[in-house]
Design goal:
By secondary structure, the protein is mostly helical. Helix 1 packs antiparallel against helix 3. It is globular. 18% of the residues are buried.
């Protein structure tokens, strides 16, 4: 059974996203789960959310509307926003 390039690419992108989020939040990767909430569980404020957005834009060469911040409350939300931004390029 071989792994398709899309799955490998998504896995690598997911890891990059987690690294960016953990770096901005100054958290260990083991402490941030796919569904843990940045604000409620990790004490992130709105400035941190904007830092995450800006870092994602730089890393993936995409544009993310600030209105998407309301969806970027955990890793799953961030991954969805990044995927949509990449798809709309």
């Amino acid at each position: 059974m071989s792994t398709s390039p899309e799955i490998v690419g998504d896995s690598r992108r997911d890891q990059q996203i987690k690294e960016i989020v953990c770096d901005v939040l100054e958290m260990e990767p083991a402490d941030v789960t796919d569904t843990s909430l940045f604000k409620e569980d990790h004490g992130a404020d709105s400035l941190r959310a904007i830092e995450i957005l800006a870092a994602l834009e730089r890393e993936f060469d995409i544009t993310i509307d600030q209105a998407e911040l309301s969806r970027m409350v955990n890793l799953n939300g961030v991954r969805a926003v990044v995927a949509e931004a990449e798809a709309s390029r």
